[in-house]
Design a protein that fits this description.
homodimer; alpha+beta; Gyrase A, domain 2; Elongation Factor Tu (Ef-tu), domain 3; 6-stranded mixed sheet; 6-stranded antiparallel β-barrel; 9 helices; globular
């Protein structure tokens, strides 16, 4: 297929930054929320080093927004998630899980509260727009649910703060972790938040006018290039180091928050109702039979991320599967996220993994494998 | 990215037929319902001729099934679609639209009635599983909604009947258009229907055990090869000739059935309620402001399908956009589907289209551009 075309008609959407990413060297795309996302600029390891040493600009327009407005917007939004939103201020963001009636995870978006009755869910890869519209039909709540013209970029890495200062002035340095602010750049309307998917210092820049994608990308790169900014893409290496989830890989509709060790995102004591409350109470009370763990896999460095779910064995018993695995050049280890039977989840447990090159030993390990903030604190 | 890997981790699912399609020559994949679909076996024009002259086997496991069961399954399924299902027999299939409360199209699946209270929606590309589960929460209806382990193949083309006879015996020749039957092949559990996405004689073979994908593919190819069967993929050329929709390209949440000329799939007179009834009544009464049309585009043969929505002009006025365009080698014409202002929709209207190679003339034309059944009747 031709690079410029990405080939199969108009069925998959192009981001407002699509042409810009091609100009700046994008070599391969994946598809996420029915849209192309650049996932290769030639060398994923170099992209990782650019992210952890400098800063990268990534097209994540695939993070589609579900906008919830109307008099009952706050009540409806709380209904969508087990996380307690009662103390969420306008200006704040929260990482939330969306669960169905069985307590299964449908998505793990970042929620932004733009106003008392105005919310955005910045999505992982599933049509929560349909879930929310479906829920609303018989809910008796007065809400409007739609996808606005909003396309995020991620500006991530230790130098991202300096790039942001150069773009927006000193005042942006006050923006706190998981808060957002309304900004503009040469008249281009934006929301800027201190969030990301890298475990590094980072920002998301939400373009609110799809016709200005080229202008915004070029403006950021022109300002950032002298400060060390590179074009890039979300880094599998860094996000596995950080123990961050990739929806469909590490979690799906049949995964519950407790299996992921994300009980902190579930408040069963709050009065408000949310979808999945009864099921999650049952799960909490009976306990989970499997748990997500970190694994360090023995052997030669993996060539790239696993593209199959690798079976995990203990002796002759199939005890689970590896969901995401990659070689970290910084840790010089093959690191992975895996879902295994609860009795095999203890740190230090020795297991075997069937990788593409055969059966290999592995050890259950603490995650996140690498925590930039702990490193910074120790420095 | 490596062909074997399709490379960005486990976030995109592989079909049970993925390895088989690689072995049989798949060269490029797209993504549909969070899953890889082969869309290139080297030459899309040859694939078209294979389809219209012989028969092709296509991996369409991406057509995920939404299964609706439970005492209220029939009532709930009717709620999902404006098409009147009151006379739908067990054993029948129907092409239906799924609409939201605004009458916008969320999907255009084939519905199978497997039992009095047992339905499958065989999906186009959107998470109707989430829409249906969301709707069910406050519906007061007793239904179970899940994605079963079902992965369809399409066996399409004039020789598909002979291949089916060789696989399943003479009795399969009685299977009527848009009916299904439960079958097995070497013990592999299947549903077989006379449906497809090609406007040719064709069948869909729904594998009901994902672990048997290789066995099923090889069995069908071994039987079919001497009868002219080729491995292939859904053909953009043939489906545009047939005027068939590709969801996200030719229709989306902001498209209503009347704009597509699909009023026959909406029954506003039936007593049963369905989502979107009030909105669709309003739209029918006021009329639509834009309509889907067929276009024949002047100039040299297009290289491949359009990958952007091309603007359609009349004189100096922007009157709409081309959604799907391709060169038909059989008709020796560039044919397209377009959404244009209702006043420009009359057959014979001359318009201009901005293709990748500049402004070109175009004429509104009758669709389907090619109807195999009319040809057969005339022969």
């Amino acid at each position: 297929m031709q690079l410029q075309d990405y080939g199969f008609g108009t069925q998959i959407r192009k981001s407002p930054f699509f042409d810009a990413t091609l100009r700046w060297g994008a070599k391969g795309f994946s598809v996420y929320n029915h849209m192309y996302i650049p996932r290769d600029f030639g060398d994923p390891v170099q992209n990782f080093w650019n992210l952890v040493n400098d800063a990268i600009l990534c097209d994540v327009a695939v993070e589609r927004q579900v906008e919830i407005t109307g008099p009952d917007a706050a009540r409806f939004t709380q209904m969508l998630t087990p996380r307690n939103l009662s103390n969420m201020a306008v200006g704040q963001c929260k990482y939330v899980l969306i669960t169905n009636a069985e307590g299964g995870i449908l998505n793990d978006p970042v929620l932004l509260r733009l106003g008392e009755t105005h919310f955005w869910l910045s999505l992982a890869d599933s049509d929560i727009l349909l879930w929310a519209q479906g829920l609303a039909v018989h809910s008796g709540l007065d809400v409007t649910i739609r996808e606005p013209d909003v396309s995020p970029l991620q500006l991530q890495g230790p130098k991202s703060g300096e790039v942001m200062r150069a773009l927006f002035g000193d005042s942006i340095m006050d923006l706190r972790y998981y808060w957002w602010r309304e900004m503009d750049l040469d008249g281009i309307p934006l929301i800027v938040s201190r969030t990301g998917w890298s475990s590094e210092l980072g920002y998301e820049i939400y373009l609110r006018d799809g016709s200005r994608g080229n202008a915004l990308w070029e403006r950021i790169m022109a300002t950032g290039l002298p400060l060390g900014l590179k074009p890039g893409h979300t880094s599998t290496i860094r996000r596995v180091e950080g123990g961050m989830l990739s929806y469909h890989a590490d979690a799906d509709m049949h995964t519950n928050p407790y299996e992921l060790g994300l009980g902190r995102l579930v408040d069963l004591e709050m009065e408000a109702e949310f979808i999945g409350k009864a099921a999650l109470r049952r799960i909490r009370d009976t306990g989970v039979t499997r748990k997500q763990v970190g694994l360090v896999i023995d052997g030669a460095p993996l060539d790239g991320p696993n593209t199959r779910f690798w079976t995990v064995w203990h002796g002759g018993t199939d005890v689970g599967h590896v969901t995401s695995a990659v070689h970290s050049p910084r840790l010089d280890r093959n690191i992975a996220l895996a879902m295994v039977g609860a009795e095999w989840a203890e740190i230090g447990t020795r297991l075997e993994v069937v990788t593409d090159s055969g059966m290999t030993g592995a050890t259950v390990a603490e995650k996140p494998f690498f925590d930039a903030r702990k490193q910074l604190a120790a420095a």
